[in-house]
Amino acid sequence: MEKNVLAVDIGASSGRVMCATYNGTIIRIEELHRFSNDPVMVNKTMYWDVLRLYFEIKQGLIKGKQCGHISSIGIDTWGVDFGLIDEEGNLLENPVHYRDERTKGMIEESFKSMDKDVFYQITGNQFMELNTAFQLLSLVKNRPNVLEGTHKLLLMPDLLNYFLTGKIVAELSMVSTTQLMDAQKGVWSEEVTKALGIPMRILPDIVPSGTNLGPLKQEICDELGLDNMDVIAVSGHDTQSAMVSVPAKEKDFIFLSCGTWSLLGTELDRPFIHDKSHQYNITNEAGYDGKAAFLKNIVGLWCIQESRRQWMREGETLEFGELEELALKAEPFKCFIDPDAPEFIPSGNIPKRIRKYCERTGQLVPETKGEIIRCINESLAFKYREALEEIIDCTGIDYKKIYMVGGGIQSKLLCQMTASASGRRVSAGPIEATVLGNVAIQLMASGDIKNLEEAREVILRSQPITEYEPKDKAAWDEAYERFKQLG
After folding, report:
1. How far, in Å, CA of 336 to CA of 354, rounded?
2. For 139, phi and psi rounded to 5 degrees?
3. Whole-model pTM above 0.90?
C-alpha cells in the first residue's frame, strides 16, 4: 500500500509544501504549494513574517487533500532563529531575522563572562554572531523586559509545530544550532546559560528527531476541512534533514549541502571537539539517530542570489542559467573573494562590494556580470576545498568523493568547479535532499522504513545522481594558492 506524507521545507528566501508518496520501494514527491519568505523591516529591526508562513502552511494543508489520505506532516527550516511565547501561549513578537544587526559585538561581549575555550569545549559550535546564544545575549543586555515576559523560547520549526499541535518542545537538531547545548550530553548547558544571563526556565524540554508530537489540533482540522494527521518533529534544521538524504554507502563520507548557505562536513558517531576544530571554527550539530554532523558553515549561493536581486533592482532580469552562461564565457582565475567576509553577509549591492573587495586586495576588478558570477563561483569552490582540508586535518581521513546535495547542484558550473578545485569526484544529487530527508524521518517514525541505512537506499533509488570528475588540476592548484593569500 502507498503512504502519503507532507513535508514543509522553509528556507531563508522561500518555502514549499510537498506531498511525498512511498510505495515500499521509492519515494515520489510533488510540489503542492510554493511561497516566498520575505524579511520585513520595522523600526530598523528585521523580522520574519511567521504568521504569513503559518498561513502558507495551512494553504499547503488544504492543497494536500488532493493527494488522498495524509498520514503525517513534518517541518524543517533554517537554524538559530526563534519566537518567544508568554504564559498564555501567545507570541510576544515576530521572530527577529538572523541578519538583523542586534547581535553586533555580542560574541566579544560573551567572552567577558564566558571563557572562549570553555565555551567551545561545551557547545562544540562554530562562533557566528547570528547564533541563538548571541541573539539572546542582545536581549539580556538591551531588552531584558522581553525575557521577563517570556514563558518559553521556541526555535522556528518548533514554533510552527506548536501552532499546529499546542506542544511545547525543542527538537534536538535545532537545539544543536543554538550554541547553548552541551554537545556531549545533548542537554541545555546550565554553565553557558548562567554565564550569559539567559534564564533556563524559558528553554523547553528537548526531544529527539523523529518524535511524534501527536495529531493536529482539532480546531485546525475543522477550519480547513481536514482529516487528522500526526505531526512529526523531524530534524528541524534543514541541514540535518538533508544529511539523511546523502546517498553514501561508505561509513566515512564528505557531504556538501548547498543552498543560500553551504554546509560542508562529515557524519560521525559522536561530536568532535578538539583544539584543532576550535582553531578552524568547525561546528558540531546533532544529526538523526544519534549521529553528529561535524561541519563548516559557509556563505553559499547568497552572493549570487543577492547579486541577481541587485541587477533586478536596476531593471535587468536574468535567470540563474543565463548568469551561469555569462560566467562560463568569462576568463578564469582573475579575482577571488572570501564569501564569508563580513561585507558580504548583509543584503544590498553585492556586485559593488565585490568590486571594492577586489580593489582593496589588489586584484583585477570585475566589471561584467559574467566576471562577477565567475568570481563568486570560483571563490566558493576554493572555500569548499579549504573547509575540506580542515576537516581532513581533524579526522585524519582522506575522503575520495564529495556528496553534493540540495538546490545548488542545479548549477553544473559550481558542481564542476567543486570537483576541480577539490581534486575529487563530486556525486551531485538529490536536488530535493532536505524534503526527502524530512519525508524519510517521518517514514522511520512510523516504521515504514527501518533505519537510516535503508532510508538512504530508498532515496538513492528515488532520485537521479550526476557524477563530476576533476579537470585542469595544475591550474586549479595554482589559483588556490593565490586564493589562500587573501586570508
Report:
1. 9
2. -70, -40
3. yes
Indicate the length of the chain as a whole number.
487
Q: Which grid coordinates belong to 373?
A: 558570477
- Count the helices and strands in the chain (H runs, E runs): 19, 22
d(CA 52, CA 56): 6
The separation between CA 90 and the C-alpha centre of its own chain, rounded to angstroms, equals 27
C-alpha cell at 359: 580593489
Contact 391, 443 (CB under 8 A): no
> What are the backbone angles phi and psi of residue 460, rounded to the nearest 5°?
-60, -35
Is the omega angle on the peptide bond into residue 430 within 30 degrees of 0, that is, cis?
Answer: yes
Q: Choose the catalytic residue: 76, 158, 238, 338.
A: 238
Question: What is the rounded distance in angstroms from the CA atom of residue 122 to the CA atom of residue 28?
Answer: 41
Report how far residue 274's alpha carbon sits from residue 90's, in angstroms, rounded to the nearest whole number. 41
> What is the rounded CA–CA span in Å between residue 58 and residue 221?
10
Whole-angstrom Cα distance, residue 481 to residue 243? 31
- Tens digits of residue pLDDT in 239-256: 999 999 999 999 999 999
Q: Express each pLDDT in 111-166 by its tens digit.
A: 999 999 999 999 999 999 999 999 999 999 999 999 999 999 999 999 999 999 99
Question: Are 423 and 389 in contact, with CB atoms under 8 Å apart?
Answer: no
Please give the pLDDT value at position 487: 73
Pairwise CA distance, residues 169 & 31, whole Å: 28
Strand, helix or coil for residue 334:
coil
Is there a catalytic annotation at residue 115?
no
DSSP conformational letter for 164: H
Rounded Cα distance, 385 and 374, in Å: 17
Closest CA to 271 of 76, 121, 455, 434: 121
d(CA 477, CA 374): 17
Task: For residue 416, give the H/E element and its range.
Answer: helix 412-422
Compute and round to an integer the Cα radius of gyration of the chain.
22
Segment 217-240, tens digit of pLDDT: 999 999 999 999 999 999 999 999
Q: Is 196 exposed, middle or buried (0-12, 13-18, 19+ CB in 10 A)?
A: buried
- Residues β-bridged to residue 277: none
- Which H/E stretch holds residue 460? helix 452-462
Tell me the mean pLDDT per 10 residues along the chain, length 487: 96 94 98 96 97 98 97 98 98 96 97 97 96 98 97 98 98 98 98 98 98 98 97 97 95 94 96 96 96 94 95 95 97 97 92 98 97 98 98 96 96 98 98 97 98 97 96 98 92
Cα 138 to Cα 13, 112, 145: the distances in Å are: 25, 14, 12
